[in-house]
Amino acid sequence: MKIENTKTTGLADIGQRLLAHSRQAEFTARRGAVVELFPYLVAAHERMSARAIARFLEKDQGIKLSAVTITKALNDPKRSWNAFFDLIEPSARVYGKAERVRPGDFLFQEKFLNPPAKNRLVRAAIKAFVEVEVRQAVTVLREKWFCIDWNIRLKARPYLETRLATGKE
């Protein structure tokens, strides 16, 4: 009995040291990175292993994502695409409502329907009349969705169609 008690105390001591170290160490976890990077992981995985992707992210970008985490995301595409879509769905709904179009109708088109105006006067007029919320939605859609390769966005379609069809309109 005394041996077990020593082991338990020793493990508790180790746990306390680990906790103290974690508070002093540089924060390296990037929660949500796998979600935000998921479309790019899908594309990269066509040519690279999960281990090679993890090495690239850590060495070249300073992002620590394990090959196991990457593989988990890739092996459950429905959950991963839906988690990624959680990031852009509010913007898609705002833009869709403003343009009177369902998100499913514009998200899977090759080009974004709302190209930037080239003329400064036209841009100024648009800025004056378009609500801030809609402008922000367009920015999010451009930066998080339409920057993804069209073929990769098409791969998301089967996982998101039901959600888009039954979503809050």
Describe the structure in your own words.
- The protein is mainly alpha-helical and 169 residues long.
- It has helices at residues 2-24, 33-45, 50-61, 67-75, 77-99, 103-106, 120-129, 132-144, 150-166.
- 19% of the residues are buried.
State the gist of this model:
The protein folds into two domains: 27-75, no CATH class; 87-164, no CATH class. It has nine helices and no strands.
* Structural class by secondary-structure content: mainly alpha
- Helix % is over 70%
Strand content is under 5%
Secondary-structure element order, N to C: HHHHHHHHH
Number of domains: 2
Contiguous runs where pLDDT drops below 50 for at least 5 residues: none
Shape: elongated
Total number of beta strands: 0
Report the radius of gyration as a whole number of Å. Answer: 22 Å
Number of helical regions: 9
What's the story with the biggest beta sheet?
Answer: none
Distance between the termini: 64 Å
Mean pLDDT: 81
Please specify the SSE layout and strand pairing.
Blueprint: H1 2-24, H2 33-45, H3 50-61, H4 67-75, H5 77-99, H6 103-106, H7 120-129, H8 132-144, H9 150-166
Helix pairs in contact: 2-4, 2-5, 3-4, 5-8
